[in-house]
Amino acid sequence: MARTAVPGRLGDRLRWRVAEVTDRRVESDTAVTVVLNVPDWPGHLAGQHVDVRLTAEDGYSTQRSYSIASAPDGERLELTVQRLPDGEVSPYLVDELVLGDQLELRGPVGGWFVWGQEQTEPVLLVAGGSGLVPLMSMIRVREVAGSKVPFRLVYSVRTPEDLLYRAELRKGSPGLDTTHIYTRETPPDAPRPAGRLAPHDLVRHGWPPDFEPTCYVCGPTGFVEKAAAYLVLLGHAPKRVRAERFGG
Question: Where is this region: Disordered (predicted)?
Answer without folding.
Answer: 176-196
